Amino acid sequence: MVEERESPDAPRQQMKKPAFPVGDALRAYLRRVRRERELPATYERLRRFADSVPLSDRLGKPTLWESVFYDRLDMQALHDDLKRVYAILRVDGDLSVMQHLYIDRIDFCAFGNSAPFRVRIVNAYNDNPDHFYIKRGDASRIYGLELEHLLSPNRLNYLTCGSTLVEEHIAGIPGNEFIDRWLDNPEIRGVRLAKELVKFNERCFIRLLGDMRAYNFVVVVTPDFEGAQIRVRAMDFDQQSYEGRLNLYKPQFFKDNAPFALFCAKHLRIETAHQYQREEQVLILQRAAIIEERLGLLLHAMSLDPLAPPENVRQLRESLAEHYKRREYLACESMGALVRENLESIRRLVAVGGGAPGAA
């Protein structure tokens, strides 16, 4: 996050990304890895709420969420079924260890592609809450979740059921809040944060996860005996492999992320940034080697699904061919093929020990 180029925030047509249906190959993959399950509560059922009220945050400020309410006769049955969904997500359906949980609130957000429901579930013994999300299924988002699970240091729990997607909550400080409240905190070692930002930037670029503005990722701070450890995690996967512009897959170039980019420039030399970039490339290749068969099945399914307009695929493959100096990209006809070719590009870079194309 130390290089300056054209910003992806330049004016462009403001069109909402369409939701893509789950194709047969992806559905078969999800069944094989036990992501596709029968669920007692679906997205369509939650849409049948009777009323709603705006939801404010802990400081009383309005949010994009509203709390929803259901017919009194249906409420208890719905809550019981949501507890079962949570049990399937967390403990493979063993409800016996979750009898003490109750559904405290259901929130809905019409903003965003997935129009999610957020379910707040609470432990009756100690009032400790957790959250999970029920969303409209979208192939782009599912590919994004699975690539994050396979190629990043983060494991993700999610399930699908037809057109329903269930996700666990990704805990952390949203990037925009971190900029406002934590970026200048003396407990945060600048080099550690800058290192993780560079590695996050590289992960997004290799697996083609777009639109990682500050409010679409979180910073996880873990206290340690030599200062806090940091990890940067994506929490929104709607823009997996959709855009045609190369820099939309590099978080460093978004205007919202400018404070992070300047922070990295302040704390890292360019040579050190390249070192961290290469470290992440090697880690991605190691993860890919461990799950080679599973990743191959996923990328095969991804290569069959139209996840972006053809003009976006053409624009991106030409940019990637120039970026990596490899004409093999020009034969790619899908976003899945481009992700596969990115992995091959970094495999070759690591093998020959060449300089990383583009700054971290």
Main features:
about 350 residues; alpha+beta; 2 domains; seven-stranded antiparallel beta sheet; three-stranded antiparallel beta sheet; globular
Computed Rg: 21 Å
Succession of helices and strands = HHEEHEEEHEEEHHEEHHHHH
The N- and C-terminal alpha carbons lie at a distance of 5 Å
Count of runs of 4 or more consecutive helical residues: 11
Question: What does it look like?
Answer:
- The protein is an alpha+beta fold.
- It folds into 2 domains: 24-168, no CATH class; 173-352.
- The chain contains 11 helices and 10 strands.
- The chain has helices spanning 24-32, 43-46, 72-91, 139-151, 175-181, 190-207, 258-267, 270-290, 292-304, 310-324, 335-352, and strands spanning 51-56, 62-69, 101-108, 117-123, 129-136, 158-161, 164-168, 173-174, 217-222, 229-234.
- The strands form 2 sheets. The chain has a 7-stranded antiparallel beta sheet with strand order 1-2-3-4-5-7-6. Strands 8-9-10 form a 3-stranded antiparallel beta sheet.
- A hairpin with a 5-residue loop joins strand 4 (117-123) and strand 5 (129-136).
- The longest helix is centred in the C-terminal third of the chain and has 21 residues, at 270-290.
- It is globular, with a radius of gyration of 21 Å.
- It starts with 23 loop residues before the first helix and ends in an 8-residue tail after the last helix.
- The model is unreliable at 2-6 and 10-14 (pLDDT under 50).
